[in-house]
Amino acid sequence: MATRPSPLTPALIDMRGVVKVYPPNVLALDDVTVSFADGEIHALVGENGAGKSTLMKVLYGLIHHDRGEIIYQGRSVRFRSPGEAIAAGIGMVHQEIVLVNEYTVWENIVLGAEPVDWLGRIDRKRARQSVQAIIDRFHFALDPDAQVADISVAARQKVEILKLLYRDVSVLILDEPTAVLTPQEIPQLFAELRELRNEGHTIIFISHRLEEVLELSDRVTVLRKGRVVATQSAAGTTRAELAALMVGREVLFTSRRTPQPPGDVIFAIDGLRYEDAHGRVRLKDVSLRVRAGELVGIAGVEGNGQLELVNAITGLLRPTAGTIRVGGEEITHAPILVRRRAIAYVPQDRGRMGGSLPASVTENAIMTHHRLNRDLTRWRGLLLDGGAAQRFTDQLAATFNVVMPGRSAPLRALSGGNQQKVILGRELLLDSPFILLDQPTRGLDVGSIEYVHDQMLAMRRAGRALLLISANLEEIFLLADRIVVLHRGAVVADVPVEEATVELVGRYMLEGNEER
């Protein structure tokens, strides 16, 4: 078993004076010096755009630095591609999981590095046995014969990790490994990562979830505006201390929601039911209310009807039965533009649902507004007013603290958190009585989360009705007036937050309501 690294342990990786500039003059990494020890779990934290992912992409050979040196295993290296990095023993698992759904787990793991027999044919038996041996060695809970299309997001992430272990990688870089996992899936992943560390692997992981950083890591490096501000042991460090290092000020982790009487019902669902193409019931007679000046949180283990509920509200699926009303108007089968006048919507998948990554920041900022806001158009709405669109984008960027190279930059040029801010800002600036938020702070740093929470509470104070779907129970307890729990597509609890506990809500999430 590997021992924890000490200050005297020689560094496995030394990154010295690394500088990266994105044209024309965006300084992403500013003289970054950091070291990673052999056999440690080392976390990288910082605000969105602080340079965490950029630094790891430099190490992995995805992008090339302008100045500085990387020392790996005692020699200077400059990987020209991820393939070179993997060959040297360094691998990276990105947030966006890319697997072949039609293949099994073991087929995905060996893809591109298949063992062959003496005739040059793929040796399927040996390949599967090799994958099973890795699964057993590191105690990963995976079925090598399962089809990837049928496994959970957490299991898919493990497949990505095993792909690298199969290629004999000793350094694993994980970018937001828990961002797409439910609270119930995280402990198992952490146990497997500790097993990898104990086997001598070095794990570098990027995360915004500070409580997880302190639970899992041996050391933490904090970046702010492209510079390293601290590297310290996780033991004895508090979440408040890390947050202050990240953003340069104190961050509050307590609720700022103040009591206020709710108004009239703004959003109402009655008897909503949905059966998929195979006749499986995904939503079972769901009914709920959200009043003006009220924020209702939806809790539940992933896959218990949250996605279907969101898609029914937004018009992406047609319910089998039931009604949806906003402001007294039924919109169950209304066209999208009618819904958009009544509903502001922040989706959980910013890349595929929230915006267009190749389109400019301005184009993403004005989506929907260009159809509903006459100030952005000329000639009775027939032509877009480019100047007005640019001013609107500047307003959004200033209001929601968006860090970007410029308005004309493609959305994909922004960090994931800043992409989310563009989408969130666009939706909150709509004049809609009802706001639907699906994982709105996923991928944001603590300072941005605090700001987003304040914006949501401001919308609540302004009398708007908010429905929040979140996998983060702490977030729901901080913000919600009421907590609604979904289990197997049915509402099994609807309780005021003052009467709820994490244990009670967790039990409803896992077991439902036996009295129903």
Main features:
single chain; 516 residues; alpha/beta; Rossmann fold; 6-stranded mixed beta sheet; 18 helices; 33% helix
Helix-strand layout with pairing:
Elements: E1 11-22, E2 26-37, E3 41-46, H1 52-60, E4 67-72, E5 75-77, H2 82-88, E6 90-93, H3 105-110, H4 124-138, H5 153-166, E7 171-175, H6 186-198, E8 202-206, H7 210-216, E9 219-224, E10 227-233, H8 239-247, E11 265-275, E12 281-291, E13 295-299, H9 306-314, E14 321-326, E15 329-330, H10 336-342, E16 343-346, H11 350-354, H12 361-365, H13 369-372, E17 377-378, E18 383-384, H14 386-399, H15 416-428, E19 434-438, H16 446-461, E20 465-469, H17 473-479, E21 482-487, E22 490-496, H18 502-511
Helix pairs in contact: 15-16
CATH names the topology of the domain at 265-354 and 430-511 as Rossmann fold
What is the makeup of the main sheet? 6 strands, mixed
In the CATH hierarchy, the architecture of the domain at 265-354 and 430-511 is: 3-Layer(aba) Sandwich
* CATH superfamily membership of the domain at 265-354 and 430-511: P-loop containing nucleotide triphosphate hydrolases
Unreliable runs: 1-8
How widely separated are the two ends?
A: 49 Å
Q: How many helical stretches?
A: 18
| Percent range of helical residues | 25-40%
Instruction: Output the structural class.
Output: alpha/beta
Gyration radius, rounded:
24 Å
Shape: globular
The number of distinct β-strands equals 22
- Which CATH class of the domain at 265-354 and 430-511? Alpha Beta
Strand order, main sheet: write it out: 6-7-8-3-9-10
